[in-house]
Structures are given as C-alpha cells and as structure tokens.
Amino acid sequence: MIRNIFVALLFFFGPAMLMLVLRSLLFLIRYQLGRRRHRGAEGPVIIDVTPVDEKKSPSRFFWVVALLLGVVSAMLALYFLSHDSGEEIRRVYVPAHVNEQGEVVPGHWEPAP
Fold first, then answer.
1. Digit-coded pLDDT (tens) for 16-66
2. Is residue 78 part of a domain?
3. Residue 19 is part of which domain span?
4. What pLDDT does 5 receive?
5. What total number of domains does the chain contain?
6. Is the Cα dihedral 84, 85, 87, 90 positive or negative?
C-alpha cells in the first residue's frame, strides 16, 4: 500500500522535478555563455544626464474620451434606474412534485395568489 503511494508520487512529481532541473541547467548555461560573450564588449560607462520632464500631463484626447465615457455611463445608469419595467408580478416557486395521476411535474413559477 505504502509502496504504491511512493511509486505514484514518484511518477507524478518525478517528471516535473526532472524538467525543473533541466530548465535550471539550461538557464545557467545560457547565462554563462552570455556573460562570456559580453565580458570583452564592455566599454566605458556612460551616464545619461539628459533632463526628463517628469510631470507629463495626459493628452486632450484622453480627457475628452474619459469625460465622454463618464457622462454616457452616468446617463445610461440614470435612464435604466428611473424607468420601471412596469408593475411587478409577484410569483411563487412550486417545486417538482408528483401529481394525482402519478406524473412528475417539474418545478415552475406561478403567480402568487
């Protein structure tokens, strides 16, 4: 019994562990090869001191689209909230049962008395 559990766990987790080890080895080999290739290519360190405008405002197109979406969604919400679908019909759920003739009647909704 315990042996079967261990065998099942081995065959369940074994391939995943093997693929993880192979993937890690592949990444390690690629990293080492890339490091060797770029070791000689390093030149002088250049520090970029170009001023960057940190406070950049969104475009007018963004403001127009955002405002339009907001107004349209607010109007739709008001429209659907203010219009009732008419008089609500109160209903009651009748569960499935067997009638007098012995037939199964599925559950359904009926108007409340």
1. 888 999 999 999 999 998 888 777 666 677 888 888 877 778 889 999 999
2. no
3. 1-39
4. 82
5. 1
6. negative
